[in-house]
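In the current project phase, we have settled on a layout for protein records. A sample record is reproduced below.
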Amino acid sequence: MNKTFTFLFIYLAFSHITHSQNIDWVKQIGGTSEDVILSVDTDANSNTYSTGYFANTSHFDEITLNSIGYFNGFVTKTDANGTILWAKSFGQPNDGDINDYHSVIPRSVAVDANGNVIITGYFEAGEFDADPGNGEFILTSNSYEMFIVKLDSNGEFIWATSFGATENSFENIYDVETDINGNVYVTGFYSGSISIDHAAGTDFISSKGSNDIFIMKFDASGYYSWMYSVGGPDSDISIDMEVTSNSEIYITGQYRDSATFYEPFFMGSPVILDTTEGYKAIFALKLDTNGNFINVIKIGEAESSAIGMSLAVGINNYVYLTGHYGGILTSNTGSSNEFNLNSDNNYEGFIAKVDFNNNNVKWIKEIDGANSSVYSFAVDTDSNNILHIAGFFGETLNVGSFNLTKQTTNAQENFLIAMNDSGDYLSAHQFGGLDAVDTQSLVIDDNDNIILGGSFKETVNISPFSSENISITSLGFRDNYILRLSNNTVLSTKTNTLQTNFKIYPNPTSDYLIVSKNNLNEKLNYIIFDINGKPILSGVTENKEKINLNTLNSGVYFFSINNQNTFKFLKK
């Protein structure tokens, strides 16, 4: 016989499951001047690598680095326990002029399958020693020049190369990725033309506007393979890229007015995306490993200023894209899925699920700041296809049933959000301090640990959890932080005392559950966990709506409502 479990204004003690993260460690990096982390990545052993730039002197635990000239680049390796194993700097040659204010700015770091480290960025006119060890490998330029440096897992130099555009203008590599064969892919923006000599001749690309987008591939030894250009009459930039296990390439960024994403050599029609003149839209581009065009999808139409900041490829090759927009954000790919968001005179964040196979956007969710702006910068997925999104907000942030309010006098605070594949919000956390905290990078390692990297000023509580206070204070103008969270959905042994009037029934059950509560009108976020605390099923339900359990095997499960009330049930 079925039983109904009713909990009506009674105190219930039970073992509680939550979708939670625990702080593993925090590293502070910096000196008395400017220190900025711009990118982090991890390897198969959960080591963390970071890159960015510093001026004067910077401290990495027991390691001290000194810059030559103005800004120098750095790269670090930190083990799974939070110990910095090594730190290297890039700059002018050792005999360079310390009063020469030319800079080296690494922008991105990636680790290949063999633990080799690839760093990319740009350097200003002059000489750049790309070997951070005892040797020298000098790259030179008369203007801005982009570089790629490859080190081994111990930070020892392997190879380096550089290239630049003909115009005396700023260009940069924004992201670098590797594939399972150690090939290196880079993307960024340029103006003028880029030419690269190789064994078969010379390849070149030319911009159509003030800035165009490039994508390039090099093999594991640093030899050039191909390059691809995207652009239109105005300014276009790429921000983020992912390369999958089968070497498919996904890129996002922003174009203005219009941009040509595919231009056939012989037959066929070009692929051009348009938006209203003067406005900016988001693109999501897919290429194969040989640089052949596969598809492109746009988000944004008239009256929008939108940018794609980060993307992640999840299970079944769905692409999750985040960024922010001002004005009206629309998606119309010709399918039945059409979306229209309005930012109400502020910038709002968003997260979208893109289906390249069927050429549509499955859903778009707003990261709402009410009367203040929200900027979303990073997204990654864990092994359960849970999305983790980072950025910052001004005064308030509203996602699903979660509402955050700025706790400091600073102009902004950081957020960390979790969401499932259906677009349901699972958790929302915040952290901030007396001055700016700038989270630049988020990555999830093979063990589902979450690593955040960025910079901060003054004193900040770096913990995203209200139950913990981890204060760090910058030594100079800006310092860096690296924060690692263990992304565990845990079955805790603590006893919780909660007051609730929820009912779940039938229990035991064969194929469905119903949640009910008197006078309940709002929607409920739920997660179902197995006996080991692993999330199995999640979604949104309404009062007395059936939740289908046909995909669950027989056994004991835990049902969590709004990440607060948890109930045990038996699936027959």
About this structure: Residues 1-19, 489-500 have pLDDT under 50 and may be disordered.
